Amino acid sequence: MIKFNIPCVTGREQIYLQQVLTDRLFSGDGAFTKRCHVWIEKTIGCTKALLTTSGTHALEMAALLINLEPGDEIIMPSFTFPSTANAFVLRGSKIIFVDIRPDTMNIDEKKIEKAITKNTKAIVTVHYAGVASEMGLIMEIARKYNLFVIEDAAQALMSKYNNKYLGTIGHIGCYSFHETKNIQCGEGGALLLRDNELIERAEIIREKGTNRSKFWRGEIDKYGWVDIGSSYLPSELNAAVLYAQLEKSKEITKNRLKSWNLYYKKLKPLEKAGKIQLPSIPPGCIHNAHIFYIKLKNIAKRTHLINHLKNNGVIAVFHYLPLHSSEAGKKFGNFSGEDKYTSIESQKLLRLPMYYKITEEDIQKVVDLIFKFYSQ
Question: What residue spans in the chain does CATH classification 3.40.640.10 cover?
Answer without folding.
Answer: 13-246
